[in-house]
């Protein structure tokens, strides 16, 4: 498709901050690793984190929903999870004693899935949940940023996911955002971004990371 384009450093994980600081993996949504993730990652690194931003689409991205769906259809989820595990292992070997995941939509789903492997100390998922079939134990605190009336995260399914987390004794914080769209935190998607909601979610996320990754 013509609206799929190549990105800088395609297929290579971009790193920000100092190796050995607590690791935060920032996982892109279904559009791919778009440019606004770079300043976001740098901002998190400036808070004292070592930030990794992998590329799950092999060097391409898009601004189109139709093309994004095509990219997701081609994604090898097992390979993506394996890549996350490798990044965590490498960072821990370099001195990162604590690990957090922050994922957007597709990236949130991957973050929640990878956290079930017991490799994270905190998980933040934007507009993403796990259904009953794919949900296991998540042995780490979870923060959710959920859009009200979002067909990707229906209220009944979100409530069921939260209840499953609580039943498994997982700490969960569920923030609901009203009058915004799915992908409200992606500045590259101009018809969906909501700057105020994105800034609020970012502030909440940093506080959550600080609470669970620092001072241990």
Task: Quickly list its features.
216 residues, alpha/beta, single chain, 6 helices
Verbal overview:
It is a single chain. It is globular and about 45 Å long. The strands form two sheets. It has a seven-stranded mixed beta sheet, with helices on both faces. Strands 1-5 form a two-stranded antiparallel ribbon. 36% of the residues lie in helices and 19% in strands. The protein has 216 residues and is of the alpha/beta class. The protein has one domain (4-213): Rossmann fold, CATH 3.40.50. It has six helices and nine strands, in the order βββαββααβαββαβα. Helix 4 links the parallel strand 6 (99-104) and strand 7 (122-126).
Number of helices: 6
Low-confidence stretches: none
List the strand order in the largest sheet: 2-4-3-6-7-8-9
Question: What is the chain-wise order of helices and strands?
Answer: EEEHEEHHEHEEHEH
Residues in helix, %: 25-40%
Radius of gyration: 16 Å
Within CATH, the superfamily carries the name Alpha/Beta hydrolase fold, catalytic domain
CATH topology: Rossmann fold
* Shape, per Cα inertia axes: globular
Quote the distance from N terminus to C terminus: 47 Å
**Hey, roughly how much beta strand do the residues contain?**
15-25%
Structural class estimated from helices and strands: alpha/beta
User: Mean pLDDT, as a whole number?
Assistant: 96
Question: How many beta strands in the DSSP annotation?
Answer: 9
Give the tally of structural domains: 1
CATH class term: Alpha Beta
The major beta sheet can be summarized as: 7 strands, mixed
- Named CATH architecture: 3-Layer(aba) Sandwich
